[in-house]
Write a structure and sequence with these properties.
The structure holds two protein chains of two kinds.
Chain A (H helix, E strand, L loop, with lengths): L3 E4 L2 E4 L5 E7 L5 E8 L3 E8 L6 E2 L7 E3 L5 E6 L8 E8 L5 E3 L3 E5 L1
Parallel strand pairs in A: 2-11
Antiparallel strand pairs in A: 1-3, 3-8, 4-5, 4-9, 5-6, 7-8, 9-10, 9-11
Chain B lengths: L3 E3 L4 E4 L4 E7 L7 E6 L6 E6 L3 E4 L2 E6 L4 E6 L8 E8 L8 E3 L3 E6 L1
Parallel strand pairs in B: 2-11
Antiparallel strand pairs in B: 1-3, 3-8, 4-5, 4-9, 6-7, 7-8, 9-10, 9-11
The chains are: A mainly beta, B mainly beta.
Amino acid sequence: NAGVTQTPKFRVLKTGQSMTLLCAQDMNHEYMYWYRQDPGMGLRLIHYSVGEGTTAKGEVPDGYNVSRLKKQNFLLGLESAAPSQTSVYFCASRTSNYEQYFGPGTRLTVT
Amino acid sequence: RKEVEQDPGPFNVPEGATVAFNCTYSNSASQSFFWYRQDCRKEPKLLMSVYSSGNEDGRFTAQLNRASQYISLLIRDSKLSDSATYLCVLPQANQAGTALIFGKGTTLSVSS
């Protein structure tokens, strides 16, 4: 039981490049989330999904897109990366009791 | 009042000390509360869940005060390994509980 995994762990992009972050969970959770964490800002919700085939915007969705084609996977896309998107990205899934489990994070730098 | 508010600290305590953090919340209808621990450059990890008046797990005790709308985390006999940031978390009020609101965290540093 791996829990929540994220790939890649680190990435450096140039401004304007695109990339996809992959999140996978093996706990059969319906709910999945993407957050970004910046110094002094805490965790901010980007997008979330309440089940396969559904997505919804969170607090800071601009510049990101997501897809949930399979229940166990939640993808976060950056179509045209900007330096403001330099951050640590965490994926999470949660139980019906709201207990949330996080992946190890992706450290993204946009130059 | 902000949805979730925590004293950022840092709290600097010696080994063996007892330390308590408070977290205030604005939604009086909240039923579930959580404390997460986050080590530097790591993901948050669930420490305790609180669904009623409180919860206890070893050296850690969480207590809920619904009248004053705060939840506390008490750590007894602090260890060096307790040094971390502690996040207070509640289900989000305006989205039918589909997302969680995270406080910005309280930093604890335990020294020998």
